[in-house]
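Exercise 7b. Backbone tokens:
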């Protein structure tokens, strides 16, 4: 009987050890400024794009950082990026889209079509890759996103 209990405990521990973490995005996330269409950023996502998302519950709310004066953005566009360690930012809020997280996938519903994105966790960012079956509005682009942990002020 004792051996059976030890065996069952070991089996449960192995299941927990082999269980994959299901990724869910909560909070404010911005795209890595220096990522490419299907290649991760070379700066480990230290510079963020000014466009991002506030993920909460079953929605992704589009947001835009309007307080940046950064000059080292792609194509030398001033203010269209910011450093990920910035203490606080001001954002405006855009449209909301329906999302669902399931088995480390983000499922985004837009214009009546639900697109699945596989989420892959890196040390400094998350990669969201579209599944092969694509909605008409989905491109081949992978999204490299980093959570912003500073203070967010919403401006009307």
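Sequence design result:
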């Amino acid at each position: 009987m004792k051996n059976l209990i030890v065996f069952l405990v070991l089996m449960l521990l192995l299941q927990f050890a082999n269980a994959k973490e299901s990724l869910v995005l909560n909070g404010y996330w911005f795209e890595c400024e220096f990522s490419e269409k299907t290649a991760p950023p070379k700066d480990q996502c230290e510079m963020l794009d000014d466009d991002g998302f506030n993920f909460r519950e079953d929605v992704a709310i589009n947001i835009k950082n309007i307080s940046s004066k950064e000059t080292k953005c792609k194509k030398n566009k001033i203010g269209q990026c910011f450093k990920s360690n910035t203490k606080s930012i001001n954002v405006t809020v855009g449209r909301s889209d329906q999302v669902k997280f399931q088995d480390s996938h983000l499922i985004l519903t837009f214009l009546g079509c639900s697109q699945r994105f596989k989420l892959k966790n890196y040390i400094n960012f998350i990669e969201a890759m579209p599944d092969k079956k694509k909605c008409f509005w989905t491109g081949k682009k992978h999204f490299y996103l980093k959570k912003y942990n500073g203070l967010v002020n919403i401006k009307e």
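Instructor comment: The CA atoms of residues 63 and 93 lie 5 Å apart. The first strand starts at residue 27 and ends at 32.
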